[in-house]
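Side project, low priority. Logging it here so it doesn't get lost.
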Amino acid sequence: MLMKRKQALVVTQEDEGFNWNKYIPNEGSALVAEIRWSREQHKAHERLNEVCTTFREAKHAERCDDERKCYLDPQGNSAVDPKMVDFDALVASILLQQNIIQR
C-alpha cells in the first residue's frame, strides 16, 4: 500500500509578511498559522464563557422577566445572550480597564 507523506509548516507572528511560497515543496504540504492570544483575549474568552454559562443556566431554569424581555441570573440581574457579545469590544474594554488601573 502506498501512503502519501504529508508535511505542515507552522508560521508564527514573527513570520508575518514573509513569503513562504518558495518553501512549500509540493501540493501535499500545508501551511498552518499559529495564532497566539494576548492576555486580554484570554480574559475576554473567560468572561464570555461565564456569560454563556449564566445565560444557559437562566434559560434552563426558565427565569424569564417578561417586562424586560430577558432571562435572569439567580441574583435577578439580566443574563446576556452570548450571541449579542462583541468579542473585540470585550477585549477593548479589558484593555481600557487596565489602562485606567495603571494611571
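Brief comment: Residues 1-36 form one domain.
Revisit when time allows.
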